[in-house]
Hints:
Elements: E1 5-7, E2 16-18, H1 20-29, H2 36-44, H3 48-53
Antiparallel strand pairs: 1-2
Amino acid sequence: MVEHIEVKADGASEPVPVRLGVWLSNTRARRDRLNTDQLTALAELGMDWAENSRN
């Protein structure tokens, strides 16, 4: 089971641990602030809620 992923944030010198479940929950909750390209990318990854948000 994956507990987190490591991402390199803009301006960061080292990767930052991110809890995937928390990131997904936050992204979904804030989907109204995402642009069309971001929603499309998430929908292509299988996030059904992103597909429904683009309509």
